[in-house]
Amino acid sequence: MKLQFKLALYNILVKAATIVFLGILIVIFIKNISISHIQARLKEKRTKIISHLSAPEIIDFLARQGNYTDYNLLREEYFTLAKIPKISTSKEKFTTEERTIEGDILTYEILMQDFNHNGAHYRLELGEALTTVDLLEETILKFTLIILVVSAIITLSTDLVFSKYLLSPFYKIIDEKINKVNDPIHFSYIPIKTTTTDFVLLDESISMLMNKLKMFMLTEKEFIANVSHELLTPISILMVRMENLLNEENLSTDGENKIFANLKTLNRLKSIINSLLMISKIEHHQYSRADTISIRDVITDVVNELDHRLLMKNLSIAVSLPKDFIFTGNASLINILITNLISNAIKYNVEKGKIVISSNFDNRFFELLISDTGIGIEAGQLGQIFERFEQLNRGEEGGHGLGLAIVKHIADFHGITIGVNSAINKGTEVVLRFFIISSC
User: Fold this and answer.
1) pLDDT tens digits for 400-425?
2) What does the pLDDT average to over 80-94?
């Protein structure tokens, strides 16, 4: 989740919790105030009722029934007056109870008090329904919920707009600078316009880091170029001298064999240096990607070039590419990538084995699959096959462990992902997935 949305979500949660908390406090506060007002009104009514106990109709009713009860029309208020044998307490008592009146159950705030009047003991009970308080509480809760929803919508909208404006320099830094970390040579050192001190510091730190990386890469590039030149020159001289020695008439057979072994070693050393130089150039983006490449044409060219190796091991090869895939890249590097993969499929295949080259295509990617019926790779070694100088024990000699490392660097250079599936004595399948330009 983006930082922008995290900030907006955090603000919404904080405000929602605040509104809910305040809403609950308001409900409790208003309910307590309402009950306090009800109790005050009940006290006033108690005083009035006790002062009017001499009314003839009440006295007559009490003499005949022993108690007197009066409800208003809506049964929101009532009072009862009843004779009792003795007074249990002279203090007023407030309770909240449910009472059934004419089949309806209502909740009342009740004031109860015992007193003496004209030598008789009475119990006065006054009640006022809490319906209004409950309605008020329900209204406040609904109002709080509405405020919560509206606030959440407004907060989300305003926070997203504000955080987008606030974080725009941060995203510019990511887009224009951090995403260029793989290419320090072409890094832009122009400061991002922002008034936020933290972003200014981040921008300056990244620029300083990229400048150091740039210097390191240039130094490494120069070093590799110099070392390669200094190594290749004496190697070439030695090879020429060895070849001249082979023209000596009095050279013995043993001497010829030793010279041939030395030439083989020098050739291998030269190949390693050229491979390392190629990897370095790929890492430093010294190759262009302006060629229009047809996968079908590359496969055809590579298969024709390696045809003699197929015949030497009696291998059959099946190419099934119903649709061609054309993209922009470096033609020579892609040729090397495909050549190395098919060469491995030949090198590690069994006698009279088979190689199948096929493809999958949809709107998102193009997959090129190169599978063989060779000796396979152990599962524990699959994670090491693209490392430099990593030679697996597969019964073959003469390699220097850089072929698949070159394949990986070329693939990364073109934005191609590589997957490898393999099983011992069953074969290996390499899957190249292209995400760049797709057209048929």
Assistant:
1) 678 888 899 999 988 899 999 998 88
2) 78
Give Cβ neighbours of residue 292 (< 8 Å, ≥ 6 apart).
326, 327, 328
β 366-372/427-434 pair status: antiparallel
96-115: pLDDT as tens digits:
888 777 677 888 888 888 88
Residue 228 near residue 273, CB atoms below 8 Å? yes
| pLDDT at residue 440, rounded to an integer | 40
Distance, in Å, from the CA atom of 233 to the CA atom of 226, rounded to the nearest integer, reads 11
The structure's pTM equals 0.53
Res 335: pLDDT: 93
Instruction: Give the integer Cα–Cα distance in Å for 414 and 435.
Output: 9
- CA torsion through residues 172, 175, 178, 182, sign: negative
Query: In this structure, are residues 317 and 302 in contact, taking their beta carbons and an 8 Å threshold?
Result: no
List the structure tokens of 44. 């006033």
From the number of C-beta atoms within 10 Å of its C-beta (0-12, 13-18, 19+), residue 90 rates as: exposed
Query: CA-CA distance, 72 to 86, in Å (whole number)?
Result: 29
The burial class, CB within 10 Å (0-12 / 13-18 / 19+), for 338 is: buried
What lies within 8 Å, CB to CB, of 166 at 6+ separation is 196
Domains of the chain: 3-136 (no CATH), 197-283 (1.10.287), 291-434 (3.30.565.10)
Residue 439's pLDDT is: 44
Mean pLDDT throughout 118-146? 78
Tell me if 177 sits within 8 A of 190, measured CB to CB: no
Rounded Cα–Cα distance for residues 136 and 84 (Å) = 37
CB-based contact 391:399 (threshold 8 Å): yes
Rounded percentage of the chain residues whose pLDDT exceeds 90: 19
The distance between the two most distant Cα atoms of the chain, rounded to a whole number of Å, is 158
CA-CA distance, 358 to 433, in Å (whole number)? 12
- Asked whether the predicted pLDDT for residue 377 surpasses 50, the reply is yes
Average pLDDT (219-228) is: 73
Q: Determine the Cα–Cα distance for residues 410 and 332; give it in Å rounded to an integer.
A: 10
What DSSP line would sit under 332-390, residue for residue? HHHHHHHHHHHHHHHHTSPTT-EEEEEEEE-SS-EEEEEEE-S----GGGGGGTTSTT-
| Helix/strand/coil for 89 | coil
Average pLDDT, the chain: 81
